C-alpha cells in the first residue's frame, strides 16, 4: 500500500513537472490585439537605450508591441541565431556582425533583401557597402566605430608627449613611455590579435581594393599577395612595429579584460582597441581621460581603420515583416540614430545624423577619413586560410620578415590552383 | 613495555617517509583551498577593489554582489530549470533502469536475453563521438531548445546504470522470484515491492551519479539550450555575467558561492553515498 | 508427455517474448538517441553538410584528405596536444593519487577527513571549477600572476598562461586533476583495502621492511586496479574537452586545443558539419584502438598475476 502511494505520488509529480516543462517559450505573432515584433541583439550594454527607442516606437505605432531580447554572450548569441534560422523560429529583427555570414544567409534566402528600403538613400556609401553583396543590401548597419590607439592624456602630458602621426613617432613615444616605467602597448590577443594587420592593409589599400584582393584569392585569380599596391607598405609597417618591440609581451591569447585593466591601472599608457569602449569607460577605465589616435602607417594618410558595429537583419520567415521593416526604418531615422549613437558613444552611419557625445568631435578630428572593414563569404578559404593566418601572426606576434610568409602564402595559392577546381 | 611502544610509535611518526607523505597531504590541501578562498574573497569586493587590489582582503564585507548576482543572473529561473530538468529526468531514468534491469534479468538465461544485455553493456566501452549528429537529430525531432527535449534525452537508458543495478539484481536468489510467482505476485508487483527495496544501495548509487552529472552538466546544455529563460544553473553562471568586453568576476563568484552551498551541504550530509556513486563500482 | 512438454515450452517462450516486448520501447529510445547518431557520423563525414540549410553534398574523402594532407600541421599539433594532455594527466594524477592514498591509508579520523575533503571538488560543476581557476590564471587580474608579482614587482610582465601550448595544456590538466582527484584516491584506497593485510604483515614478520613489503607484495597485487585506473585515465584524457573549452574560449579554435576540445568548439562554431564528422570518426578509431589494446593488455596481465 505504501509503495503504491509512493509510486503514485512520484508519477503525479512527474506529470506536473512535465506539464510545467511543456509550457515552452513559444511566441505568437499577435499578443492580444497588438502585433509582436521580436528584436534580438547581443548589445546588452545598450539595453536602456533600446528600451527607450522601443518606448518611442510604440508611441508612434501603437498597434505594435516590440519585444527586445538581449544575449550578452556573443558566441551563444550567434549560435542561437544560426539554429533559429534553421528551425525557422528566428526573431523578426536580429543583429549580426557585418561578416560573410550575412551574405550566406541572404543568398540562401533566409534574410530579406533590404535594398528597396528608405534607409539606403540616407546612409553613408561606405557603410552601406559593408552590408551589400552583388548589389543586394542584406542588413542595415546601425553604427560604426573607429579602431586604433586609446591613450592616457594625463600620462602623455606628464611625459611631454604629443600624439604620434608617423610610425617612427609612435615608436619614439612608446620607447619614452617604457623608459618612464610604463609597459608596451596593451591589446587583446584573443579578439584583436591580428587585427592590426587587417587594419594596416585597409588603411593602405582602401576598402575596395582590399576586398578585391581577398575575393581574388578566393577565386584563384590572385596568386601573388603583393600584387596590389599598398600591401607591402602595410606589412612593412606592422613588421616595423613588432620589431621595435612596442607591444606588451605575451598577450596572444588573452581577452579584452586584461588588456583594458592594464590601461585602467595605468600600467599601460596606450591600448589598441575600438573607440566603442568610450561607451563603458566609467566601468572599464574609471577616472582616465582617454584620447584616440589612428594607426600611423608609412603612407601617412591619417586615415583610421573602422568597423561597423551591429547590422540589423530581417528574417525572411518572420510572420510580421511589415512590423520588422517599420522597426528597421525607425532605427534609421536621423533622430533615433543620433540618440542611440550618442548614448552608446558610437558613430552613426547616416549622413545627416551627428552624435553629440563627449568624444565625438575628438574622434572625428583625429583622422582624415576612415576605411571600413568588409568581409564576404569565402567559399574556398580552407585552401589558404591557415597560411594567411600564419602570415598575420608571424608578422604581428613574432616580427618575422614579411617576405618569407608572403612566399609561403603565394606558393600555397599557386599550388591550390583554385581557379581550376571542380 | 609502554615506553618501548611509544618510542617506536614516535619513530614511525618521524619516519621521513611518513613525514613527506604528510607534507604532500597538507600541501595538496592548501592547493585545494586556495582557489576557493580567492573566490570567496572576491565575491565580497567591489569592482574598483578588484582591479586595484586583486589578492588582498576586501575592505568591507557587503552582500551587494550576492543580491546583484541573484537578480542579474536570473538565478531563480535557473534553479527552477535545473530542478525540473534534473528532477524529472532522474525520476524517469531511475524507473527506466529498474524496469529494464528487471526484464533483462528475467530472460538472462536465454540467448536473446544475453544478447540484449551484452549489446547494452558493450556500448559503455565504445567511445561516444555522436555529439554533432545527435544535435542535428534533436533539431529534426523538435527536441531542441526546450525542456521536454532535455528531459527526454536525459532519461534514455543508461548502460552504466543498468550495469550497476544488474550486478545487484543478479545476486538475488532465484528462488525469490519463483516463490513470488507461486504466491501470485505479478511482474510489476514483484519489481516494485520486492526487488527494488533489496537493491536500494545500487539504485541510490546510480541515481546520485545521474543526479550529479545532470545537475552539473554545462557544456552539453550550452549546445542544446539556447533560450536565456531555459538556462540551467551552470550555464547561468558561465554566460550571464559576461559583459561584452569584460567578465564581472565579483558578481560571478557571488553567484557561484550561492549555488554551491546547497551542493556542499548535500555532500557533507550524504558523503558516503556520493563517494560510492561518483566512483562507481570498483569491480567495474 | 510430449504434449505436456510442448505446453511447457510454449509457456516459456511466451514468457520470454513478453519480457522482450516490454524491453523493446526502452531499447528503441536508446537506439534512437545513442546508437543511431553514432552510426550516422560515419557516412556523414563524406558529405558537405550545411547546418543552416541542412543541404548535404557528397564530397567523398575530401575532408580526410584535408586533415592528413593540406592541414597535416594542425592535425599533428592537435595530436601532440592530446598526447601531452594524456602524459601530464597520467603522470601527475597517478603519482599524486598514489602518494596521497598511501599517506592517508590508515583509517584514522584525520585521514578520513582529508579523504572526504579531497573528494569534495567532484561535487562541483565543471563550469564552476573552471570559472574559479580561470580567475587564478588570468593574465592581469589573476591571482597567480599577482602573487608572482609580489616577488618581482617592477619588471614582472604577467605571464599569459595560455600563450605557450605546453603550458596551456598543463593548466587545463591541473584543473582536471583538482576537480577529479577524489576518483583515483577512492579507487586506490579500496584497492589497497582489499589487498590482504596479513600478507604484508607476514612478510614483515619474516624480516622484510615496510618499504620492501610495499613494493614487492602490495603493488603487484594491486596491479589490476592500477592498470584499470591507468586505462580510465588515458581514455578520459584522450577525450577530455571541458576544461580547455571552459578555461579558454568557447568557440574560437586555439593552438592549444586537443581533439576533444577541437571537436566541441567545431560543433559550436561550424559552418559545415562535414569536417566535424570526419574528426569524430578519426577520434573514434584512435580512442577505440587504445581501448582495445589496453583491454587485451589488461587481460594478459591479470592472467599472469592470478595464473
What does this 3D model show about the protein?
The complex is a heterotrimer of chains A (422), B (284) and C (307). Chain A is α/β, with parallel strands linked by helices. Chain A has two domains: 137 residues, D-Maltodextrin-Binding Protein, domain 2; 205 residues, D-Maltodextrin-Binding Protein, domain 2. Chain A contains 19 helices and 15 strands. In chain A, strands 8, 9, 10, 11, 12, 14 and 15 form a seven-stranded mixed β-sheet that branches. The termini of chain A are far apart. Chain B is mainly α and 284 residues long. In chain B, helix 5 runs antiparallel to helix 12 and helix 9 packs antiparallel against helix 12. Chain B starts with a helix and ends in a 5-residue tail after the last helix. Chain C has 307 residues and is an all-alpha fold. The radius of gyration of chain C is 26 Å and the shape is flat. The chains are: A alpha/beta (422), B mainly alpha (284), C mainly alpha (307).
Task: Pick out its properties.
heterotrimer, A: 422 residues, alpha/beta, D-Maltodextrin-Binding Protein, domain 2, six-stranded mixed sheet, C: 307 residues, MetI-like fold, 2 domains, 2% strand
Number of strands of chain A: 15
Q: Which architecture of the largest domain in chain B per CATH?
A: Orthogonal Bundle
Domain module count of chain A:
2
What do we call the CATH homologous superfamily of the largest domain in chain A? Periplasmic binding protein-like II
Number of helices of chain A: 19
How would you sum up the global shape of chain A? Answer: globular
What would a concise description of this structure say?
The complex is a heterotrimer of chains A (422), B (284) and C (307). Chain B has 16 helices and no strands.
